[in-house]
Design brief:
Layout (H helix, E strand, L loop, with lengths): L5 H20 L2 H5 L6 E7 L7 H16 L8 E7 L4 H14 L3 E5 L1 H10 L5 E6 L18 E5 L5 H12 L5 E6 L4 H13 L6 E6 L4 H11 L3 E5 L3 H5 L1 H10 L4 E3 L2 H5 L4 E5 L1 H16 L15 E6 H6 L6 H6 L2 E3 L1
Parallel strand pairs: 1-2, 1-3, 3-4, 4-5, 6-7, 6-8, 8-9, 9-10, 11-12
Antiparallel strand pairs: 10-11
Helix pairs in contact: 3-12, 4-5, 6-7
């Protein structure tokens, strides 16, 4: 269920295939030849704690792909990790630390953390993942030709906000209002909100802003108590990712259907998720890192967009809030958690 046109979708798929093909055909001997210098990499995972399984899964495929390409932490790479845990001040501090340490490349997740790095450096190469509006946010000049020192992998296009609202209404047809969990420091959220508000009248709904920078439990509780027959649109952000189990528990307490941006939200107890295969994007980030370490410039590596969105439904979560998921939606799901 891609949001792009068929031709554009095919071109993106072809490029991803080409990207993988190029990596596969480079001679292994050439990959094994390293410069004798230990290369230094900074990795800033803005949304995760070090014990978060979702963060570890992404890092795991990243490191596995690097090993396949001839790079290994402690042998010819030194990787410096920072785990932001969804804390805005901590992420700002970590971004500044990494820039001061002047690594060869920085890998970063999430729009607000990338925006901070963009403010701090225009010279250190940066590869991003889990970012939604790199062009609109002024990070890159265009997807095809990023320019500057940054490139990477985009998660969502602005229209996804309307798609999330439509799917939330499909899973819970009685909903009259949706609370959009958003943050003012994520430029993409304004576009997601606008897309949802544009679709809302045709669904007989309204959309209310719930600011995730407020005390989260109080903000969601006040919203749910003030809006009968409401649901939640949980936008991607370090705070919503880091606090996903709290959000799930509040949704159950208030019997509030919610839709989330990534599969692991549903795996961890959320009702429904719809978003890209991030594991594949982290594999791509390792390939881009390999290419930059071998001399290519970020400005010449196109920003990649998803070729597939995954739908996951958690039937245990549905039962917990007294909801019966329509069979048509279950049939379309890539994963059903029972």
């Amino acid at each position: 269920m891609p949001l792009t046109g068929h031709g554009e979708h095919m071109r993106r798929r072809e490029f991803i295939t080409l990207l993988g093909g190029v990596a596969a055909t480079w001679p292994l001997a050439a990959r094994a030849q390293q410069t004798g210098r230990m290369r230094r990499i900074g990795v800033l995972l803005g949304a995760y704690t070090e014990t978060d399984q979702a963060g570890q899964a992404r890092l795991g495929i990243f490191l596995k792909t690097l090993r396949e390409l001839g790079w290994e932490d402690g042998r010819n790479l030194r990787i410096d990790y920072r785990w932001g845990a969804g804390n805005t001040e901590k992420n700002r501090s970590f971004a500044a630390e990494l820039v001061r340490s002047a690594p060869d490349v920085i890998i970063v997740t999430s729009d607000p953390v990338l925006a901070e790095l963009h403010r701090l450096t225009s010279t250190i190469p940066v590869i991003f993942t889990q970012v939604s509006e790199p062009v609109e946010g002024g990070i890159v000049a265009s997807l095809a030709r990023p320019g500057g020192n940054k490139t990477g992998f985009q998660n969502f296009e602005p229209a996804i906000g309307g798609k999330w609202l439509d799917m939330l209404k499909e899973v819970a047809p009685n909903l009259k209002n949706a609370g959009a969990l958003l943050s003012r420091d994520a430029t993409a959220h304004a576009a997601f909100l606008q897309a949802a508000q544009n679709v809302a009248p045709s669904l007989g709904m309204t959309v209310t802003v719930v600011d995730v920078h407020n005390e989260l439990e109080r903000a969601i509780t006040e919203y749910a108590e003030q809006h009968p027959e409401c649901g939640l649109l949980v936008f991607p952000h370090p705070r919503t990712i880091a606090n996903r189990r709290l959000i799930h528990s509040l949704a159950v307490r208030h019997r509030t259907p919610a839709i989330y941006p990534y599969r692991y939200f549903a795996v961890d107890g959320g009702l429904i998720s719809y978003g890209p295969d991030q594991i594949d994007q982290w594999r791509g980030a390792a390939i881009y890192l390999d290419r930059i370490l071998r001399g290519e410039k970020p400005s010449e590596l196109p920003v990649q967009t998803p070729t597939k969105y995954e739908l996951a439904i958690n039937l245990k979560a549905a039962k917990a809030i007294g909801l019966t998921v329509p069979s048509g939606l279950i049939v379309r799901a890539d994963e059903v958690i029972e």
